[in-house]
Amino acid sequence: MKKTALFLLVIAAFAFAGCKEKPKTEAPQQPAGMPAQGQMPPGQPGADPHAGMKAQEIPAGAGQKGKVTQTMNSGGYTYVEAANDKGEKVWMALPEFKVKVGDAIEYPVAPPMVNFQSKTLNKTFDKIMFIPGIRIVK
After folding, report:
1. What pLDDT band is residue 61 in, cutting at 50, 70 and 90?
2. Domains of the chain
């Protein structure tokens, strides 16, 4: 009987100790320039390296020329298909930018990604270049 009473007293003491109010603390403040909790910092595996990036206008004479044959926006990117003067077509993706079918453009050349699957478009591109921007030729 004494062992049972002692055992119950120990359990009650632990229960009472566990019910004490915990000291309140504030969440640590995020240093400026750091991503919010749950987000990967730029340059880390799994992070979107283009998050928040704005399209850059390409200077005249800095790339290939073509005419826009298709364009669509999705997931913060503009996807553009352009044909050169020989009719060869190329897909490119850049940070969102206003462009329309029929626009004459100039764009930098970059190594293409092969069989790139866009989850937001539910489309697989045989080859696509990711570029920083385009220039609309007037």
Report:
1. confident
2. 64-136 (2.40.50)
